[in-house]
Amino acid sequence: MSEIIAALSSQFIQVSLPEPHAALVELNRKPVNAFSQEFWTELGHTFDKIGREPSIRVVVLASALPKAFTAGIDLSALATLDTYEKEPDKNALQQRDFLAAFQRSISSIERCPYPVIAAVHGVAYGLAVDIIAACDVRYAASNASFSIKEVDIGLAADIGTLARLPKLAGNLSLVHELAYTARAFGPAEALQMGMVSRVVEGGRNEVVHAALSTAKEIAQKSPIAVLGTKHLLLHARDHSVQENLDYTTVWNGVMLQTADIKESLAAVKAKRKPQYATLGKLPSKL
């Protein structure tokens, strides 16, 4: 198991298993986790590999650095855009491919079949919000500072913030204000907006501890039930109520055959904790 988890780490990303079946993914590009193209590509590959690892049931995404989750994109990573074709049509096609690959890397978090809990502390600007919005559960340390920063460098956020944040937030007026002004905001406004579900007093260590505590609880649940719940919640977000109900009947028509149900009922009867089997190898896309 340790060899499998170690193989998931890369130059800028550390992966460990601090709790059974609960992976901790830590961003680690000093000094402030500014994202280069290599970094965001690594992130995408990491979550795609985690999504195919049956021994993992839940993931915590955090920063290994004491003062920042991420300061956003490393602006030098955009220098390659100057090497593209100068003709507008060809340039547009190359830009589109660049952005689509970038979006796919960040969407790997949402694509991961297991729940992903963001544990955010310190600076969380620009691309940080794209990343956070792709997570399933979001905790913020009391020292966290957020900003939808893109308008300050002359563009609309294009890697996921504008696509996901309006669907997870309960205060669209505040979402618009923050996206238009790029002003920094703290955990209280993030909680008010619905971007985070919990504010943890302290910094990195405290918010990671809280996230791992929740991850430990999730990891003890039926893995097929948790995986199905994430899948159906994402489907519900993007479809009508009736479409989701219809889809759920098909999904559970298969998944109700799981041995996890028998184990759950046997555990209740015996007054013991259930012991669920590890999932088999998952397909690349559910």
Describe it for me?
The chain has helices at residues 2-7, 37-50, 88-111, 127-133, 161-168, 172-181, 187-193, 204-219, 223-238, 241-255, 259-270, and strands at 13-19, 22-27, 58-63, 68-70, 116-120, 123-125, 137-141, 145-147, 198-200. With 286 residues, the protein is an alpha/beta fold. The protein folds into 2 domains: 2-219, 2-enoyl-CoA Hydratase, Chain A, domain 1; 223-270, Orthogonal Bundle (Lyase 2-enoyl-coa Hydratase, Chain  A, domain 2), CATH 1.10.12.10. The protein is globular and about 65 Å long.
In short:
By secondary structure, the protein is of the alpha/beta class.
C-alpha termini separation: 24 Å
- Principal-axis shape: globular
Instruction: Please state roughly what percent of the residues sit in beta strands, choosing from under 5%, 5-15%, 15-25%, 25-35%, 35-45% or over 45%.
Output: 5-15%
Helix content: 40-55%
Which whole number gives the mean pLDDT? 94
CATH topology of the largest domain: 2-enoyl-CoA Hydratase, Chain A, domain 1
